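Appendix B, Record 12. Input sequence as logged:
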Amino acid sequence: MSIAIAPAAPGYDTTGAGPHSSERVFDYGEIAAYPADLYHCQQQAVGVEGFAGVTDAAIAQFHTEGYLVVHHAFTSAEVQDALDGLLFLLSGQHPTFRGVMYEHGAKGVDVANLSAEARQDYVRKFMWFVDYDERLRVMAHHPHLVTLLTRLLGEPPALFQDMALIKPPHIGREKPWHQDHAYFDLPLSTTVVGVWVALDGATTENGCMVIYPGSHRQGPVVHFKRRDWQICDTYQRVDPALAVPLEPGGALFFHSLLQHGTPANRSQHRRRAVQFHYAPASAQKTSSEERLAIFGEEGKDVTC
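Logged structural output:
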């Protein structure tokens, strides 16, 4: 089951330009310097081993701290299937898929004449792909994943957003501190779980997730359009941040009010990941006006 909650941004529809078109969609965020210590972490998140390792204590940690790390949640074969699915879509072999956004650094690059393997190093993200590739759909609805989500949500989950976050070597920009719920037309009382799955090794050098444990319990924070639609860099936090490095197949489960971000990738290594968002199947939409009244009026027509 799926529920349509987050609207597609311009360029993410079935009438947009394809991967071989000169009319490509580019990242709307700003590339600008940010404070050197903005994502500084002295500690790393710890997790459990595999879906079988998720105990009741781990579930309780999710509700208290706002996150749960599951190492090796997906096998190497499942990770490769997801990568193959993304390359299939990027190659233009599905004639109606239009969900590709390129990095600013791709401007001036003739990506249309590159192989899909090379072209991915200019892509920022894919959106709305589960209905276009069976391998990606299978990952999003993996039985063990659905079982864990049911435990976290207290009822069966409904997938309402799917994306792949491709932070390419050297040019992958940061995603500033934010709360994902700020992008969703859902009541604050609705528990939404994001699932971030590493397809490459995600490290502090190539832009792994950085989180503030427990920040979901502080409620919503107003966002502003700066380098992205984000929480201001000067927002004061009490607890230290945690880095969440993951090996391929590792997954971070996080509450939609958890404050998190990712630094730029200035390394030579790829940092590809997929991210899915799930709400309880019984979830009801709210209006964009209600959402913007909480998170800030500058968030009209933005996407994660």
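Confidence is low (pLDDT under 50) at residues 5-22.
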